[in-house]
């Protein structure tokens, strides 16, 4: 079952185990420059608000009503990252396998959406080992940042790979670890006292006219250093007889008030302004975990900047020169008891 | 049951073991109180802080604000507002569910609906 708890999308599997719970949050962040450099992890600037789509059925298109799920506001060219949190930062944390797709294109493998877990594709992340996902996996330890662009403009990864602006948004499916594997894992944790962990850390003009609600898709932004960890438990560890899935509609933030009656979040600062203020970036690594390589299909995707240049369009402001100086390294290893924090006060 | 101060001290000091940003001084600074005051709160020498401060503290420590508020003997103002809008129905609902096991409570929470996609 999935519930909305504040701005957390919470997945629970009480039929598998009382502790089988995992939460996902979408974090506002800086858009890193797309200038060929590899940037460290930008901060979290607060969670995007999430709302049930079915609460606004008279103000959203039929296709959104059919998909149901939740929705959140993003400005054009705004970046975001996904935060995963297992149930508790302790030896009791319950592992889950999570598949993430944008426009029904898997963010890890670049392949079309497939709900089931298949070890050969290695197209899912494991929580709590994977604390965050900031973008599409384009090379080993390198991702291209998730950046929102209007669906239909041709920029999204979905449109570049399939040629059609059909789905947009984000698609998520979560599988819990099998109960017996979890019990065995708890026994191993007791013996080794190794605590792997879940995570939590690290204005546009309002549209006055009643335009149809516009969906956004996720495009590829600048390059960032981020490790995507392979499944350390093996495919057999996951209970594929049960799963929970959710469609997350990305709404153009300038239409958020029109649909929900609530103000959208303000636009985040630029990466250049943030860095000039001496504020920190982050590097994260987990010793002893195998990392995945990039997906062939995703390496061929053009970034927003590359495509804008090709189309002769101005779709986002200048990113300016950014040289992160203050970089906080977070490494998790045996004995870690607390979640890495990457969120800033705002 | 663990007291508010003990719980906060344990949550903060556990994080401080691996992250210096969770020192008493830095946490106090981020949530907008004096370190000496936070120290007294952790040692239960003063009453728990205001709701707004508890929510900031919960956010900073990655803890559930409802749990921290409950430990401080408070109910969030958002929950109060919800109850006050339909006091009779919510009072009855809470009384009906007071002894229900957790799995039964989960059956009455609102689920995110999944559709066709």
Classification by helices and strands of chain A:
alpha+beta
Q: Give me the strand/helix succession of chain A.
A: EEEEEHEEEEEEEEHEHEEHHEHHE
Count of helix runs of chain A:
7
CATH topology grouping of the largest domain in chain B? 434 Repressor (Amino-terminal Domain)
| Shape verdict of chain A | globular
SSE blueprint and pairings:
The complex is a heterodimer of chains A (346) and B (117).
Chain A (H helix, E strand, L loop, with lengths): L1 E4 L2 E5 L8 E8 L9 E2 L11 E2 L9 H6 L2 E5 L4 E8 L9 E7 L2 E2 L18 E3 L4 E2 L1 E5 L2 E9 L6 H6 L7 E7 L2 H14 L23 E10 L18 E9 L3 H5 L10 H6 L4 E6 L9 H4 L4 H8 L15 E6 L14
Parallel strand pairs in A: 4-15, 6-16, 17-18
Antiparallel strand pairs in A: 1-2, 2-3, 3-7, 5-6, 7-11, 7-13, 8-9, 8-10, 8-14, 12-13, 13-15, 14-16
Chain B lengths: L3 H13 L7 H8 L3 H8 L8 H11 L3 H7 L5 H9 L1 H11 L4 H7 L9
């Amino acid at each position: 079952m999935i519930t909305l708890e504040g701005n957390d999308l919470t997945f629970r599997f009480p039929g598998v185990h009382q502790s089988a719970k995992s939460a996902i949050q979408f974090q506002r962040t800086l858009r890193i420059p797309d200038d060929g450099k590899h940037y460290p992890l930008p901060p979290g600037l607060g969670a995007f608000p999430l709302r049930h789509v079915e609460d606004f059925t008279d103000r959203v298109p039929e296709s959104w009503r059919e998909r149901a799920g939740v929705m959140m506001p993003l400005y054009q060219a705004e970046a975001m990252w996904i935060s995963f949190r297992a149930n508790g930062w302790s030896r009791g944390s319950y592992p889950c396998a999570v598949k993430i797709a944008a426009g029904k294109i898997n963010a890890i493998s670049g392949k079309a959406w497939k709900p089931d877990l298949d070890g050969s594709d290695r197209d899912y992340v494991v929580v709590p080992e994977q604390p965050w996902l900031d973008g599409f996996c384009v090379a080993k330890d390198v991702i291209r940042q998730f950046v929102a662009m209007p669906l239909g403009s041709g920029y999204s990864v979905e449109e570049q790979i399939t040629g059609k602006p059909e789905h947009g948004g984000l698609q998520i499916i979560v599988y819990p670890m099998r109960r017996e594997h979890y019990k065995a894992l708890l026994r191993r944790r007791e013996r080794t006292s190794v605590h792997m962990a879940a995570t939590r850390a690290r204005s546009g003009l309002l549209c006055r006219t009643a335009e149809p609600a516009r969906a956004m898709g996720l495009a590829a932004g600048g390059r960032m250093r981020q490790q995507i960890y392979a499944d350390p438990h093996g495919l057999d560890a996951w209970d594929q007889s049960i799963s929970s899935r959710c469609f997350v509609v990305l709404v153009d933030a300038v239409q958020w008030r029109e649909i929900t009656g609530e103000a959208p979040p303000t636009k985040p600062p630029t990466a250049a302004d943030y860095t000039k203020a001496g504020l920190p970036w982050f590097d994260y690594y987990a010793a002893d975990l195998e990392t995945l390589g990039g997906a062939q299909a995703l390496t061929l995707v053009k970034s927003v900047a590359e495509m804008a240049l090709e189309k002769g369009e101005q779709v986002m402001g200048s990113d300016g020169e950014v040289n992160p100086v203050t970089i906080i390294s977070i490494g998790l290893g045996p004995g870690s008891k607390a979640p890495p924090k990457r969120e800033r006060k705002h | 049951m663990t007291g508010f101060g003990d719980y906060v001290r344990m949550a903060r000091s556990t994080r401080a073991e691996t992250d210096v940003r969770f020192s008493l001084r830095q946490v106090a600074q981020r949530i907008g109180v004096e370190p000496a005051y936070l120290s007294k709160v952790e040692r239960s020498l003063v009453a728990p802080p205001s709701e707004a401060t508890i929510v900031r503290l919960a956010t900073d420590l990655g803890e559930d604000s409802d749990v921290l508020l409950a430990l401080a003997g408070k109910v969030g103002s958002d929950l109060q507002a919800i109850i006050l809008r339909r006091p009779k129905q919510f009072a009855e609902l809470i009384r009906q569910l007071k002894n229900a096991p957790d799995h039964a409570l989960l059956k009455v929470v609102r689920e995110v609906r999944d559709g066709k996609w």
